[in-house]
Amino acid sequence: MSASxxxxxxxxxxxxxxxxxxxxxAIARRMAMAARDEVDEYAAVTxxxxxxxxxxxxxxxxxxxxxxxxxxxxxxxxxxxxxxxxGAQRAREMMPLDALLEAYLIGQRTVWEAIVDAAGDSPDxxxxxxxxxxxxxxxxxxxxxxxxxxxLGESNALATEAERGRRDLLDRLLSGREPGPDEARRAKxxxxxxxxxxxxxxxxxxxxxxxxxxxxxxxxxxVRALVRADPARPFIVPRHDEVVAVLPVYxxxxxxxxxxxxxxxxxxxxxTHGVRxxxxxxxxxxxxxxxxxxxxxxxxxxxxxxxxxxVVALQEIALLDYLAAGADETARxxxxxxxxxVLEADDGKEGILTRTLRAYxxxxxxxxxxxxxxxxxxxxxxxxxxRIATLTGRDPRRxxxxxxLLTGLKLLEP
Length: 414
Fold this sequence. Notes:
By secondary structure, this protein is of the alpha+beta class. Helix content is 66%, strand content 7%. It contains 18 helices and six strands. Strands 1, 2, 3, 4, 5 and 6 form a six-stranded mixed β-sheet that branches. Helix 1 packs across helix 6, helix 1 crosses helix 7 and helix 2 packs across helix 6. The longest helix has 51 residues.
């Protein structure tokens, strides 16, 4: 017994501990009932086996506290294994940690009430109760630290295992082959319905912006951004230098709405953490076999993202832009020489002639509307179009020549 109890109180303190030990079953029942009454997560489990387990664990606590009282110190080392195992178990059961710790605090209160009852209201009894009450705080601190460490350790292990499972499943789905029954069951367990409609989103940070460690941290933030865009159990996997998300489609929520939600998340990410993220969103994929196509589409959409357009949905990309972005060197060599001469006249960038050509096309080959769009006189538009015709040998007032020049410019732009 701790010397702080004093000689006058030792015998009474021992008597209190003896009474707790003798009434361990009744005290444990009060602890278990209070936990079920006051902690929603405990009350929600109606399984009789769970009730028996909670009662047995409560009895272990009474015994452990009595032992700690007789030793004059809180439990330590292997003496805490019984709460460590329970913390790991509750993590596997996905019970919230705060609910578990609240149940232990209720246990401390119940033991304190039993101490007060056993000690009585004499001055010596009140002094013994006071000393043992101090021990309940030290005891509860020790077990809470142990159970929290075990819970978090198991949670981290489970999260790592789940992430590995998601990555393995995604790799198999992206192979493009039909998933077997086992894979379909795994997908469902991880939040993917085999016959549902999804879109695939790929998020990444700006290339070359971060060190390896910073990229790893940025990837976690990208995951948060994707979660914010779909808080209802998203399927998200960090993969190489990107983060892949498979997001459900439902009424009034298609690729465009997901793109808008991602844009908001990307803006918040840059505002709060200074991380610049880009993302691409696929068209709708029906069933798991189409996710491979969706992954390719999301990657293609991501290549169109830029500083002023951080998230791009495939369906919002103009066909000419998409074709030009995927053109090979041979296609670029096929670009008409006239398009190169327009760029040379504009010093290799979108200058007066290039802007005039594009404005003329967007205004349906109407000179007056083009002049209004460019805030110039119609004669100026006529002059520029004539100059382009002279430079290129192609008359942009003819649809076929205009289409060829615009395609060439698209192929040749940086």
